[in-house]
TrEMBL record:
Gene Ontology BP terms: negative regulation of cell division
UniProt organism field: Streptomyces avermitilis (strain ATCC 31267 / DSM 46492 / JCM 5070 / NBRC 14893 / NCIMB 12804 / NRRL 8165 / MA-4680)
Range of residues in the leader sequence: none
Gene Ontology cellular-component annotations: cytoplasmic side of plasma membrane; cytosol
SUPFAM superfamilies, per the entry: P-loop containing nucleoside triphosphate hydrolases
GO molecular function: ATP binding; ATP hydrolysis activity
Protein name: Carbon monoxide dehydrogenase accessory protein
CobQ/CobB/MinD/ParA nucleotide binding domain segment(s): 10-197
Length: 329
């Protein structure tokens, strides 16, 4: 039994939300505890998991509850003077409250909803849709910052999965959120545009030990497969072709998940096996160092000026996030 944080990335229209929703359904069918997070600007994960338009629109937005999230996670950490001084990269320290996948807490109560699937159920959290108010100074990253704060304070336990449908392209590199995962699945179509995001992501992630695997989507024949192999090499993990099940799901009439094509069930099992295999590589000290690295970078670039305080002082030098920590009540 392992515990994993998994990201799905790719350019807009690549099919990453569809594939992330299939993977979430696959995990739920194994009875694994799953927290699913829609961190994309275009909020479609709820619909892909079977919610109707009204249900999806009614999901509580994490971005609108950022104050509550900060106040809860801050806990009694003496290095954080107030929730107002927390930014998206603020790391936990002694006294901070940590999140667990299976627990009940005020963050989940405010921001998560249970979605029943035919193979089980998952907790779904969404950043909230992009609006005019997110333009300019506020920017959409103020909403995805709620996701990053939660990931920074999350200690996932045995047999648990956190699956995040990320922003399209390489937007996650505006912060350190791309380092918060055990493995990243990059969904790419067999086209020049399809692999361009892969090259960009690979280059950015090179120095941070990010485990990156490519999922070829909309692959229709040997020529498509040969193209992807030539472009991404050994990073190509698996390919997915046309699916009548997915077409029915996109029309709002998904059959039972067990009726998904055998080839696609095998592809999902391959994704899970690849994710599980990276767990052995998890290094909590490195994970915490990267968290601190990006926090100090953001503090110097804009955070100190924005908050009027020295955010470097929020770093607890003796703290390492790990499974052995007990969440503060």
């Amino acid at each position: 039994m392992v515990n994993m944080k998994i990201a799905f990335v790719g350019k807009g229209g690549s099919g990453k939300t569809t594939l992330s929703s299939l993977f979430i359904r696959h995990l739920a069918a194994t009875a694994a505890p799953v927290v699913a997070v829609d961190a994309d600007i275009n909020q479609h994960l709820g619909a892909a998991l079977g919610l109707d338009e009204a249900e999806a629109a009614g999901l509580p937005a994490m971005g609108e509850r950022l104050g509550l999230i900060k106040d809860y996670l801050r806990g009694s950490n003496p290095r954080i003077a107030s929730a107002d001084t927390m930014i998206k990269t603020t790391p936990p320290g002694e006294g901070s409250r940590l999140l667990r996948v299976r627990e009940s807490n005020p963050v989940y109560e405010a921001c998560a909803r249970t979605v029943e699937l035919d193979g089980g159920a998952v907790r779904l959290m969404v950043t909230g849709p992009f609006t005019d108010a997110d333009l300019g100074v506020a920017c959409y990253h103020s909403k995805t910052g709620a996701v990053e704060l939660c990931l920074n304070h999350l200690v996932d336990g045995p047999g648990e999965y956190v699956v995040v449908d990320m922003t399209a392209g390489s937007d996650s590199f505006a912060s350190g959120m791309f380092t918060r995962f055990d493995i990243t699945f990059l969904v790419a179509e067999p086209t020049r545009k399809g692999v361009s995001v892969y090259r960009q992501y690979k280059e950015y992630a090179r120095d941070f030990g990010v485990a990156l695997k490519v999922v070829g989507n909309k692959v229709q024949g040997q020529d498509d497969l040969d193209f992807l192999r030539a472009e991404v090499g050994e990073d190509l993990l698996v390919t997915v072709g046309h699916s009548n099940w997915v077409r029915a799901m996109e029309k709002g009439r998904p059959p039972r998940f067990e009726l998904l094509e055998d080839a696609n069930h095998r592809a999902l099992r391959t994704l899970q096996s690849a994710a599980d295999a990276t767990y052995e590589l998890r290094d909590w000290e490195s994970y915490t160092r990267q968290m601190v690295h990006f926090h100090l970078k953001n503090a110097g670039n804009w955070g100190n000026e924005r908050t009027g305080t020295d955010l470097a002082a929020q770093v607890d030098p003796g703290f390492v996030l790990s499974e052995g920590l007990v969440a503060t009540a």
